Amino acid sequence: MFSVKRLAAAATAAAAAAALGVATTPAAAATICVGKKSGCFAQIQPAIAAASDGDTIAVAAGTYDGGITIDKSIRLQGASAGATTIEGGGPVVTIFRATAPEGLDVSIDGVTITGGVNTTKPGSEVTFGGGVLIPTSQLDHPPFNGTGATVSLSNSVITDNVVSSNSAIPPGFCGPRSCGFNDGGGIDNGGVLTLTSTRVTNNTAGSTASASSAASDANSGGIDNHFASTLVLRGSVVSGNHAVVDSQIANNASAGGIGSLGALDVEDSIVSDNTVSYTGSMDFEDQSGFAGGIEIDERGSFPHPTVTIRNAQISGNRVVAANSNPSSLPFGYGGGVLALAPALLDHVSLMDNSVQVSAAGFAAGDGGGMEVDAPVTIQDSQVARNTVTVLAPLGAQAFGGGIAMFGGDLTLARTVVVSNAVSGNGAASPLPFGGVSSAFGGGISNGGPGIPPATLTLTDSVVNANRLSGSPGFLLQGGGVFNEGAFNRTRAVIAGNKPDDCFGC
Predict the structure, then answer these.
(1) Nearest Cα to 207, choosing from 260, 168, 169?
(2) Which H, E and C letters describe 347-365, residue by residue?
(3) Beta 177-179 vs 169-174: how paired, if at all?
(4) Closest Cα to residue 112, out of 59, 52, 167?
(5) How far apart are the first and last CA of the chain?
């Protein structure tokens, strides 16, 4: 009855105001201060509790406790990234509300978010988000995970955060082995996230130098972008982040910088010096490290998520994969980018990325700059000084120093592929997955033993000064281009590559 009376009174007041010609307006947005001044909150979480939707929380210079949850549509304004720090917690900042999380709209500006260690959320075996966690919304129908909050991060730094786990799922869920999953060392995004003039640096998913993880799989050292979510980067840097697995159940490590299942829009930004490190000893055949800089995926979603990367530098990213079990067959691929979904790269420098694989038995590695598993267009760009190196005493396959096509069509327009290299080292012997020990496609590879060929289109492009090398007896083919599929060539130059320019052209 009380709520009914309140509603009735409100309706009566509104009607009276309308009759008198008086406009009714919501309360004006307030600014709530956090800091040492009189009248300000000492910490951020109590200020959030006191705020209403539309308010601004102004945080003065200083260091404040992390582990906060933002559940209102507010603006969090720091003094600057160099002056205002939010530190600690697991994660440091969570942006979520249980009711209609997709309607939450949050802006954060001028802060550093650091020191987060998440080993428990959403569970101890599966953890998301070391620095910032934006959970997905929950749907009552497939795919069950929807879009969470809309968030803007600007003029800020997300650094030195960790997402890890201290327990694993027992055998059964992942077959005969235990497993655990760590995603989003810096940021785990289940909503619509825009980063502007922001740096995401030195975050880790999985194991760290000082502590191991129970995870079998670590993904997205810098930023994880979920299915049905959107990630936008403008004038931002994702650098020096790490995805690492080195436990007894180590299976896969991926996406040192960004792992994206949803829409991805990158412009005027840098993704550099991120690393993927897989160190294992299991004897399964699918152990791998991949996507040193960016992983573009879709997991069967339709329509495909939109992926555009413009005016960007993707450089110095690395994949390092090693397995000490001679019965295993480790793989490493996609040093700079792994494209498992369609993508456009426009005015991109894909440079100095690498894949390094070592094993006690057989091994394979490819795509020093990029592996292409879905239709990709690269235009007005350069693919330079990327490398693939495989060392395996029983036999090795190494290919695609610049770009490895793995069944996905590739179109290059007005693009230079130069000074990329492939090196295979080990015994010259037949390989368990087909073919013999080999190095091929110093600049670009299309197909190969067990690899579905696709269509390669070169227009007004140059493939130059790429090279292959291998142990004695290795098969070396296609210093510039190795091709087993359809090949369309218009005003393209393939010259000056070693030991040859083009195989199958």
Answers:
(1) 168
(2) EEEEECCEEEEEECCEEEE
(3) antiparallel
(4) 59
(5) 82
Domain ranges for the chain: 281-505
DSSP result, 120-184: SSB-SSEEE-SSEEEPPEE-SSTT-EE---EEEEES-EEES-EE--S--EEEEEEBTEEE-EEE-
What is the rounded distance in angstroms from the CA atom of residue 124 to the CA atom of residue 253? 18
C-alpha 445 chain-centroid distance: 24
Q: At 501, is the secondary structure helix, strand, or coil?
A: coil
Q: What letter would DSSP give residue 101?
A: G
Q: Among 424, 427, 341, 434, which Cα is nearest to 389's?
A: 424
**Tokens 């979603």 — which residue?**
301
269 CA to centre of own chain: 14
For residues 497 and 474, give the distance between their C-alpha atoms in angstroms, rounded to a whole number: 18
Per-residue pLDDT of the chain (505 residues; tens, 9 = 90+): 223 223 233 333 333 333 333 343 456 789 999 999 999 999 999 999 999 999 999 999 999 999 999 999 999 999 999 999 999 999 999 999 988 888 899 999 999 999 999 999 999 999 999 999 999 987 655 455 778 999 999 999 999 999 998 889 999 888 888 889 999 999 999 999 999 999 999 999 998 877 788 888 999 999 999 988 999 999 999 999 999 999 888 889 999 999 999 999 999 999 999 999 999 888 765 689 999 999 999 865 556 779 999 999 999 999 999 999 888 888 999 999 999 999 999 999 999 999 999 999 999 999 999 999 999 999 999 999 999 999 999 999 999 999 999 999 999 999 999 999 999 999 998 988 888 999 999 999 999 998 999 999 999 999 999 999 999 999 999 999 999 999 999 999 999 999 999 999 8
Per the CB < 8 A criterion, the answer to whether 209 and 200 are in contact is no
418-to-271, 314, 390 alpha-carbon distances in Å: 20, 15, 20
411 SS3 class: strand
Tell me the torsion sign for CA atoms 283, 340, 336, 156. negative
CA dihedral in degrees (377, 272, 285, 422; nearest 10)? 70
CB neighbours of 79 closer than 8 A, spacing ≥ 6? 59, 60, 61, 110
Give CA torsion, residues 457, 461, 462, 468, to 10 deg.
-30
Which is it for strands 62-65 and 84-87: parallel, antiparallel or unpaired?
A: parallel
> Cα-flanking dihedrals φ and ψ of residue 372, to 5°?
-115, 110
